Hints:
The chain is built from three helices and six strands, in the order βαββαβαββ. It has helices spanning 11-22, 64-75, 103-114; strands at residues 2-3, 34-42, 47-51, 81-90, 121-125, 131-134. The chain is globular and about 50 Å long. The model has no long low-confidence stretch (mean pLDDT 94).
Amino acid sequence: MKYESEKELNSDDLFLLTTARDSLFRAYAPYSRFRVAAAIRLANGQIVTGTNQENVAFPSGLCAERVAFFAAGHQFPEEKFDSVAIIARSEDFNMDHAAAPCGACRQVMLEYRLKQTDPVRVILAGESGSILIVKDVKDLLPLYFHEDALKKGE
C-alpha cells in the first residue's frame, strides 16, 4: 500500500516510523554518508531499533535492519515480531522515495518471520516522498531460501 504522506498513517505506524527516524543520528556512516534506521515493534509492544554501522574494512559493517532484527532476537527470543519501519537519509542528496532493504537483510528478516505464523508488516520511507507498507516480509522475498533445504535424511 502506498501513502503520499505520514498524515495518512495510523498512529501506531506513525509512532514506529518516527521512532526509526529519531534513531537515524545513531547510524555510523562516515563513508557512504547514507544513514538507515529500523524500528521493530514486537507483539508485546516493545520497540527495538537499529542503525547501519559502517567500517573502513568493507564489508565489515552491518545494515540497520540486521542490527535491529538480531538485537530483538537476542533480547526477546520468544517474542513475535509485529512490524518494522525502515527509513533512510543521505547527507548528500534528498532521499525522496522509500528505502528498500538489501537482499541479505530481506533474507534475515524472513528468517525471523518464518519462526512465527503471523505476518510481519514492513513500513518503508525516505526523508520525503511516499511511504510504502508491505503486508508481510515474505512479500519482499518471494523466492526465498529456507531451512528445509538444509535438512538431510529426515
